[in-house]
Amino acid sequence: MTYQEFKNNIIHTVSAKLGPSYRVALQDIIKNNDTHLDGLTILSENSNISPTIYLNYYYDQYQNGKSLSCIQEDIMLSYQKNVPAKNIDISFFTEFTKLKDRIIFKLINYERNKELLSKVPHIRYLDLAIVFNCFVESLTNGYATILIHHHHLSYWNISCEELYSLAKRNTPKLLPYHLQNMSDVLDELFATEPVDWLCDDFSPIPMYVLTNTRKLHGSGCILYEDLLALISQKINNDFYIIPSSIHEVLLIPAENAASYDELSSMVREINSTQVSREEILSDHVYFYSRHTHKITM
What we know:
297 residues; four-stranded antiparallel beta sheet; alpha+beta
C-alpha cells in the first residue's frame, strides 16, 4: 500500500467510525526545521479544537509490519485520549491587553527555518532565531501555543521589539527553568537497572541539563535574564553550551571540557544519528563567559 493509499484509507475509516457529525481532514503541517507532516484533525460539530494525529509515524509502523487494523485502532484511541473536554475561548486573541501576559519565546535554527521565518516576527540570535508564541493553558491534557505571525503585529499595532520585551518577562514565569546535574539524570534513568558496570572510581565530567519545567522548547532558557550568570557563579567557571535539542541544552564547565572542535564534531554526529530532524537546534557549540556575560560561537 502506498502512502497516499494509506492516508485515504485512514480518512475513510475514521470518518465511517465517527459518523457525519464529525469532520475528518488532513493538513500539511510545517514543523520545526521545515519538516512537513500530514496531520489528521477530527472536529465534532460542537468543537473548535482538535488534537493533531501525525500519520507519517503510523505509516512507518505499517511499513515495519504493524497491521492496518491495529493502526486504525491506535489512531482512534489516540483521538479519544487527547480530545479536549471543552472548547478553547480564543476571543481573547483579538484583544492584545488580554494576551500580553501570555507572550512567550522559543529558539529555533535560523537557516533551517527560512520559509517559516519569512512569515513570523523574529529576532536573529547567533545562528538561531527567537520566535514568539501565545501560551494557552486551558487544555485538559496540558497546554497549547499559537505561533504569532506578522499579520498579528499589524492587527495589534505593536513591534517585534515590544513583543520580545513581553516575552522576556513572561517566559521565565510561565515556563520556569529546570537545572539538573547529569549524574542525577542518569541515576533516575537507571534507577531500576543494575549499575555494576560503573567502576568505583568512575568520575564523570561535570555536566548539567538545562530545560524548563515542561521540558518542551527548554533551550530558550539560555535567554532567561541573569540565569547563565547565576549558573557560572555557582560552578565558578565559564562553560560550553551544547545544543542537545530544541528542548534542552547541556552545560559543561570549560575547564573540564574537550576542545571546541571535538565538541562541535560530537554535536554534528549526534544530530545526524540520534536527534529527529524537527528537534535539531544547531550543529554549533556555544561558549558562555562569566566575565563578559555573553554567549558566543
